[in-house]
Amino acid sequence: MRQDEKEDILTYMERFKGERQVLKSLIGSKFLEEFTKNTPEYKALGSDSKAQTKLIEDSFEIFSTAVFLRGANQRKYGSLLEGYRGQYAGGRNHYPTTLLTAVDALRTHKTDDKKKLKDVQKKNDKYTSKDEGTGENSFAQNASERRCYACGDKEHMLDTCPVRDDIPRSKWFDRTNREYNLHQDTRNTSIDNRTENDDVENFTRPCWSGVQLCMNTTEGATINDRSVILDSGSTISLFKSKHLVTDIRDTKDKIQLETNGGTRIVDKEGQIKDFGKVYFNEDGIVNIFAVKDLIKRHRVTYDSNNEDAFIVHIGNQPIKFRANQQGLYVFNFPNSYMNYVNNKNTKEVCLQTNATSVEGYTKRQVERADRARKLYHMLGAPTMTNMKAVIRQNLIRNCPVTTEDVNLAEEIFGPDISTLKGRSTRPSPTTVVDDLIEIPEELKKKNRFVDLAIDIILINRVILFTSIDRSVKYRTVVPLDSHKKEELYRGLDQVVRIYNNAGFTIRRIHCDNEFKSIMDPVADEMDIIMNYANPDMHVPDIERNNRVIKERFRIAYYRMPFKKIPKIMIRYLAMVCAKQMNIFPAKNGISKYYSPHMIMSGETYDYKKHCMCEFGTYVQGNTRSSNTNSPRSVDAIYLRPVSSLQGGHEVMNLATGKRVVCSRIVVCKMNEGVVNIVETMAENEGISSLKFSNRKNENVLLLDNDLITGVSENEEGDYDNNSKSTISEVCSDSDEEWNEDELQETISDMKCDHVVMSENENKNSEREEGDDILVDEAPIENEDKISEQQEDDEVLVEEAPIKPSPRTTRSGRSYAQVVERGVEYSRESGLFLARVINESRDSTIGVEGSFSQQFSLRRGLKKFGTKGKIAAQDEIKQLYTRECFEPIMVKDLTSSEKKKAQESFMFLTEKNDKKIKGRLVYNGKPTRGFVNKEDSASPTAANESINITCAIDAHEDRDVMTADIPNAFVQTNLRKENEVGEKVIMKVTGVLVDMLVEIDPQLFASYVTRENNRKVIYVVVLKALYGMLIASLLWYQKFRKDLESIGYKFNIYIYIYDSCVANRMINNKQHTIRFHVDDILPSHVDSGVNVAFLQWLNMKYGSVKEVSAKRGEVHKYLGMVIDFRSKGKVKLRMDDYVVDILNEFPNKIGSKDIACTPASSSLFDNKNSKLLDHRKKEQYHTFVAKCLFLSKRARPDIQLAVAILSTRVKSPTNQDWLRLERLMKYLNGTRTFHLTLGIDNVKVIKWFVDASYGVHPDMKSHTGSIMTMGTGAIQSGSGKQRLNTRSSTEAELVGVDDVISKILWTKLFIEEQEYVIEKNILFQDNKSSILLETNGRKSAGKRSRHINIRYFFVTDQVRLGNMEIRHCRTDNMFGDYMTKPLQGEKFREFRRMILGMEGD
After folding, report:
1. Basic and acidic residues: which segments have biased composition (predicted)?
2. Closest CA to 380 of 609, 615, 583, 580
3. pTM
4. What's the sign of the alpha-carbon dihedral 736, 741, 742, 745?
């Protein structure tokens, strides 16, 4: 590279350093090693191995310095360079050996002027010898300063030196006397400055600093970046640390700093608080306060009798410069000053400098061009042809950028520099291309089985698991923590889950032979065929994919203002690059109509969601608001948008370096302080530049493994075979080009009714410990489950989809992929399977809502004061009393135990009775990687079980009690060591350490240690603490075992119908126990039995704190008020919950805002309507979730409306919002409505099942069901059917099949309560479907023969006597309420029956 004509030397240096860094990252710095060993200088060092090693290490710096000088402007510096060459030819090497000294030499050199060269030469001749140095800028010695270059003697010259051959060249006088060389190198400049008054870089004054020599002597001991030295030998104050100086700027009076080590040009200055201006140079050794400057501003005293320190009196806070071991007087800046500097540095630096005004263009045109360039990088820097085509065809909704803006950006900004730096090509080798068939229809069905290629790449030693399949061409990147088998399994498991969730199955995996020992077990467990490449060969697909990811990574990297980025940004940038490449339809993929992103996720790329902000942008992310003066936002770097329905943004918190999720962000201008913070984070992680390496951590060249024989460069359409690798063609030939007509045909054929799937991203790929998740509001009960249901709009509301459990391998790991095999069941097996509702359905059952806010210990103590401290002390004292842990010395821990040790957290909350409660929690989140889901999931009581048993309680007039076991988890013992001999270790920190020591100083005081200036005690956990993933399951196992030990049975016939309901016959009557974790609901006709059971609970679990119990006829349980005051009936109320929903609804609902029904008759209509904005979409999701929770418990009358609104959660419109608002108005008019249940005959069950044919926009039908035993709907359901039917008869038949498992389960569950079911009646109003269900295939005509035989399963149940089917008139078909939005009297009549009301 060359210095431009108008480019100053500093700009040229910065540009050169950037290019040098790129070169170094690509080829390394050891390519000169062999050359250096053959040089005379290396050989002259003989056996001095240290000097030889140093010469090799310095070779790259010397080489780059020579290249830098060679590229300097010859017109300006030609005479200087000619002088260097002349002296080198004469045996005297005066070439600078570092880039810094080269810059100093060029800056101190007077710019050449051809018109004055002759005059200058004549004046130089006065000071030079006639026989030496006749160049334009002479380097000859002054006659009075003439010395022998070899020995330094003034009496003779080099050619007559008698000891010339005896002195090694490296020891010659001109090489060892730095001051003499400096004088010789700069003498001509001084002469010229004395004789000419032309425009050169003038320096206001020479300055001196001697501290560098001292530092070299002392090797900088005890000095760090926070230190500043008080120096009486310096004439200026000079700082080198950016994080100590504010307002860094170019100085008006550049200075030439003279030191014992040479000269340096200082051209920047800054501010130090309470001191003023200082000079700034990053290449300095230490920070210096000159004594002469300090005494001008403050009083300085020194008294050696008191202390060996200089005291600077600044206000009431004097600071001391104390003497260190080397005799230097040092002061270390405190953290408060560092924070002040970070907040003060607000100098603006844009992500990529763009002109705000350009000659010949208006301000508006420049803004349009800037927006187009930003979108270009948000889409992963595609070719201009691709970008324009995507904009023309409206592939990005709501996109404000036009093709004219793209052309305008090219005109104003020219070719994109970061693209030129980041992308490169090589000549294509002979290609081997797989001829994949393009299938435009039924993509997933015909391409269900896919082949996957996997590999690992390393960027700055960050391990990235990459994959691409050979059908969809979907690319993934999963960051890993290590190369261990467990991590590779985790990466593969995440990728497999993405394909499984999208309906694909991995058939074969292609990878390098290095994976063989690791992947063979995967092949055995998952029935996947492994194909390993031959030794010294590679898998072309993945190697080519790796190359493209690296190129996109480089483009984005050079786009940012950071010279280095931390590992968390590397992880996310790699994932973002992979996601961006999935936006465009893949050439040679299974479809030219749908992109891999659309095929795998069912989503289109949305500008407003996915292109709101560019990676690496400086943003402010919102935090949870409070009543304190703490900031409402955090400084952060933008990473990527969140893929959930709620939306949001993932950012990197600049204060912690951790990932944070924010619901809102505000883009801010980048400033130098932010750049410094990011680069400092990278430096702390040992990152200095961008480096790609292989699995052996060896730096790799730009020539990747994909550029080898057998690896097609054009198969993905990324490059043109005819590309000549010229840099001017990089931007036009690096991506696949789509024909405009082909794209038009593609878009016109695309259908909008494809199934919308959720974004399948790597939700666990970032495993940063201590992730700080920011949210705007408290989580909603069951919200995760609701989202899970609504992602597939075919799911019935009353029943969660029964998904296959992840398969467990021999090693204990689980994988998402389950291989389907045909299984033939006997009649008896089929019956038993039909009787069971999988326990996974409990995942849709909500838990009791807690509306109290929890506070961390620090915030809680501020809010609650002494009460909070007492609550925290009581909690930790209780755990100590229960012997929940014991201390352990750090030295006694294994490395694995210490690594897995998790911190404890104390939370404080104010309960409804105004008492402050403390809760010590084990941080179980990071342990998800160590614990299988199967080992941590605890069952809970089903809502249906609660309703049935409560109705029986009312029917038999039982005494009912609720009980709460205190600290249930901590009463469960843990094994002291797991199966591999490791203990469960927890770290107690901060204030909690003081509390433990105060409780038992003799036990805990000796175990206190310090980590990162915090007090820490390591303890071995002996009990299941709150927060541990396995705590709830361990408690369940213990409580169940304790109940079974005293005679209780858990509804076991062949299967467990509800694992949280137990029974025992006492006094010839049934004692029923229902429990949800530690909340217990027992009942018996004899109140004395409950009293005895409470005594047993206290004896077993109340030794430290008494088990609290509630007696009487009204109880609060699982978010409901259960009222037994009406004889023979139970009322389930949630009046307060309804009031809370109405008060929180964003649209004010007044007392007169009332609707007669939950939905209008047009509920199923799906007219074109505008989509809700992001904020309103989140509100819609929130309130639909709340209503779903309500409808499943006390208000089944709103279940149909909620079921339909739930199917719209993915993309709600203004019409859906109006429907939700109508539902709110209905609740407003029925605030006190509740569910009343009663039993007329405990031996008779009645089911009403109905279906509305083809009512959904996709012509699918809707199923509704009601189950009653007299008064009220004990069970109800409303949901969209899973498949299309051809008649109302088929719809009715499919509806029965949807509910059949519940019909059988209910019968068997009640029989386990020791009741004999005499009649299990199914009522229907369609006689044709009744004939099919009763007679099976015998009654099937031509139009019904295609119905799958599984729908005649009900026929077998009728024949076996498990149920009977009766006809019901349509006017009495209560199931009709759950299938269509009834109005008027029919609505009120059916509502009375469903809610068990005596009247409206």
Report:
1. 111-133
2. 580
3. 0.44
4. positive
